[in-house]
Each structure stands twice: as C-alpha cells, then as structure tokens.
Design brief:
By secondary structure, the protein is mostly helical. It is built from 10 helices and 2 strands; from the N terminus they run H-H-H-H-H-H-H-H-H-E-E-H. It has a two-stranded antiparallel ribbon with strand order 1-2. Strand 1 and strand 2 form a beta hairpin. Helix 1 runs antiparallel to helix 3, helix 3 packs parallel to helix 7 and helix 6 crosses helix 7. The radius of gyration is 19 Å and the shape is globular. The two termini are about 30 Å apart.
C-alpha cells in the first residue's frame, strides 16, 4: 500500500506540473488538465476533435513530447530521482538508453527519408513529435499530412508502435526491455556457436536473468 501511494504521488505530481506548464503556454485550465491526464497515461485522447493539431503551438508540442517520454519511462527511475536524488539513474539504465536511441534514430530516418514536407526544422518538429507519440503508444498528432509520408516512415512508425515504451511505465507495446533481452539472447546464441561449452549468463543491470524469464520473453 505504501508503494502504491508513492507511485500514485509521483504520477499525480507529473500531471500537476504538466497542467501548470500547459496553462502557462496558453491552453485553458480544463484543456490543460484533460491533456495532462491523457499524456502521462499515454492514452492520447483530447478534449478537442482536431486534437493537438488545433493548438498549432510548438511550445505545447515540446511540453507534450517531454511528458509522453516521462509516461513511457520506467517509474522506478522517476522514484530514484525524486526520493533517492539519483540524477544518473536514467543514464545507467540500459533499457532507457536503448529507448532514447530508438526514438532519436527513428526521428532521423523520417527526417531524411520520410517524405515530410517543409524545411529541416519543420521536418524535425513533425517527425520528432510523431516518433515520440507512436513510440510511447500515445497517439497524439500535430499534423494530418502523415498519411502522405513515405513507406520508410510508415515502416518505422509501425515498428515503434509494436515495440512501445519501457517496462514499468504507462506505455503499451512489447516493451523495450523485452527487445533488449531478445538482443542479448541472440548475441549469446551466436557466441555459443563459436564456443559450444561456454556458460554465458545474460545480465541486466549487473543481475543475471533466469532462463525461465528469457524463454517467456
């Protein structure tokens, strides 16, 4: 029960902070509160029929990007930052590092070969927002032109949607943690082809992962 209270407190604190920031960016209090609840939960609903497109505001989109990532990040890392004052817990976590790498790589691919119209900054704005939105399984959009993007962009978006966010987060998908373990497992099997008698444990954050967990993944 005490653990649940801690994580509910963290969750509601993020909602409150985002509500204040969105209100300061020019959205009404009602829209700010509704949008904040649906951002941290990575649900993607909006009080407006046109969604985020209706605001057409770069500052609002940046706030949403930050808090979508917050919602899709393992809440244990947030706990370590807030209660343990561990500023580097995010960067030590291999899942979070891989998650950020996937988001950055996908944004670059769509900017370069996604068929997005406009200058470079406009491409980064559209691609970055959609990558984070899809990669957190939120579903916000800041343009309706994404339907005309290239097949490369479509493939990237589908892969991000399937992978989803981190374990212990509000995001859906297969989870980045499972993809990381699959990669480690495949690497071990390749090594065992070269060294059949070798015993190679798979570790995550320095802790060995049991074979039953690996098989289920």
């Amino acid at each position: 029960r005490s653990t649940a209270k801690i994580f509910w407190g963290i969750y509601l604190a993020f909602v409150a902070i985002q509500t204040i920031l969105l209100r300061a960016a020019g959205i009404s209090l009602y829209d700010s509160l509704c949008t904040s609840f649906t951002t941290i939960s990575t649900a993607g609903f909006s009080p407006l029929s046109a969604g985020i497109v209706a605001y057409d505001n770069l500052l609002i989109e940046i706030i949403l990007i930050i808090f979508m990532i917050v919602g899709a990040t393992n809440f244990i890392l947030h706990y370590q930052l807030i209660y343990k004052k561990d500023l580097f817990s995010y960067f030590r976590d291999p899942e979070f590092r891989l998650y950020i790498f996937l988001q950055a790589s996908a944004t670059a691919l769509i900017v370069l070969w996604g068929g997005v119209d406009g200058d470079l900054l406009h491409k980064i704005r559209l691609a970055g927002f959609h990558v984070v939105s899809v990669g957190t399984t939120t579903g916000f959009t800041n343009t309706f032109d994404y339907v005309h993007w290239s097949s490369t962009a479509n493939i990237v978006i589908i892969l991000l949607m399937l992978i989803g966010g981190c374990a212990g987060a509000t995001a859906g998908g297969i989870k980045v943690l499972r993809m990381l373990l699959v990669q480690k497992y495949a690497r071990r099997e390749m090594m065992k082809l070269l060294h059949p008698k070798a015993i190679i444990p798979i570790k995550l954050n320095g802790t060995p992962v049991s074979e039953s967990v690996l098989i289920s993944v």
